[in-house]
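Researcher: Structure for this, please.
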Amino acid sequence: MLGFVSAHIPWDAVSNLQLRWSYNALRSELVLPSASTLSNICRREYTLTVDAIKKQLPSTNKVSLALDGWTSTNKLAITSVIAYYMDRNWALREVQLALDEVNSPIFSYFESLLRITG
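Model: Predicted structure, token format:
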């Protein structure tokens, strides 16, 4: 499932006979689930993740949101949304709400500038 999500492959691709045959040729013991099963698993995991994040956030305090972004040495651009809050003991706490790869034209523009000037 991780392969489908990370490669942005639609769930119904798992119904493709050639794809199923190639997976079976690589690992005969592998049983590919149906598109509806993959979708149900994804929905369940999403709900569990949202519930886990909600449990980490305080119910009475206000939170501050921050957006952070960086690039790795392999030119992968990442952005993250983080919630910050103070707990009852005045300790700063943080909860990561989102993490995603950035595919933006602005990053391509800066990358091309670096190639020209670098």
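Researcher: Any notable elements?
Model: The longest helix spans residues 35-56. The chain has a mean pLDDT of 79.
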